[in-house]
């Protein structure tokens, strides 16, 4: 039995040794896993930091480019609006000056037409006075010639005679003598 006791103790010792080796192996594996885990964690952090820095640089570059394009477009847009505003102002100013010039021209023409109308009226008045004077003179001459006058009617010439003479023809209620036409 002693042998049995000796074998038990050997078996127990081997079990204990195997258990210790197992625990030691587990501890080594755990340390290696923790080391690997820390290394992976550190590598992941480095990779994420590198990617984050690269993305930040790309985003910054893109934002800078967009900002530059925005400024260029804003400047171009502002230039277009300024150009359109200047053209609109120039057009309005041209219309205003053209309208003012046309109004001045129309006013000048209106003044000329008024002056011409006044001259025409004055001339008409002078002609009316001259006609009245001629009618007076004609009436005086007719009185001096005893109503004898030469008149033309329907292409024929007549000499009006003094009232009371009978000739067969009358013009304006006055006796008249028809003259023969020469051919």
Brief characterization of the structure:
With 183 residues, the chain is of the alpha+beta class. The chain contains 1 helix and 4 strands, in the order αββββ. Strand 1 and strand 2 form a beta hairpin.
Protein described:
The protein has 183 residues and is of the alpha+beta class. It folds into 2 domains: 2-144; 146-183, no CATH class. 78% of the residues lie in helices and 10% in strands. The chain contains 1 helix and 4 strands; from the N terminus they run H-E-E-E-E. The protein has one helix at 2-144; strands spanning 149-153, 156-160, 169-171, 174-178. A 4-stranded antiparallel β-sheet has the order 1-2-4-3, with no helix packed on it. Strand 3 and strand 4 form a beta hairpin. The relative contact order is 0.03. The model has no long low-confidence stretch (mean pLDDT 85).
Q: Termini, distance in Å?
A: 196 Å
Query: Roughly what is the average pLDDT, rounded to an integer?
Result: 85
Strand order of the largest sheet: 1-2-4-3
Largest sheet: 4 strands, antiparallel
The beta-strand count equals 4
Rg over CA atoms, rounded to whole Å, is: 67 Å
Instruction: Kindly give the count of domains.
Output: 2
Main features:
four-stranded antiparallel beta sheet; 78% helix; single chain; 4 strands; 183 residues; alpha+beta; 2 domains; 1 helix
Write the layout of secondary structure elements.
Layout: H1 2-144, E1 149-153, E2 156-160, E3 169-171, E4 174-178
Antiparallel strand pairs: 1-2, 2-4, 3-4
């Amino acid at each position: 039995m002693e042998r049995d006791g000796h074998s038990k103790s050997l078996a127990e010792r081997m079990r204990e040794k195997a258990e210790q080796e197992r625990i030691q192996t587990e501890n080594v594996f755990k340390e290696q896993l923790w080391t690997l885990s820390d290394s992976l964690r550190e590598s992941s952090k480095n990779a994420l930091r590198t990617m984050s820095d690269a993305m930040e640089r790309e985003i910054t570059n893109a934002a800078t480019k967009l900002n530059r394009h925005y400024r260029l477009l804003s400047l171009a847009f502002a230039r277009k609006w300024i150009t359109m505003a200047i053209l609109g102002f120039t057009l309005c100013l041209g219309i205003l000056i053209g309208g003012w010039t046309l109004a001045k021209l129309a006013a000048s023409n209106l003044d000329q037409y008024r002056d011409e109308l006044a001259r025409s009226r004055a001339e008409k008045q002078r002609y009316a006075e001259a006609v009245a004077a001629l009618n007076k003179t004609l009436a005086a001459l007719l009185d001096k010639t005893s109503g004898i006058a030469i008149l033309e009617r329907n292409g024929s010439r007549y000499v009006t005679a003094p009232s009371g003479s009978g000739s067969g023809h009358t013009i304006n209620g006055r006796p008249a003598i028809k003259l023969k036409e020469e051919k």
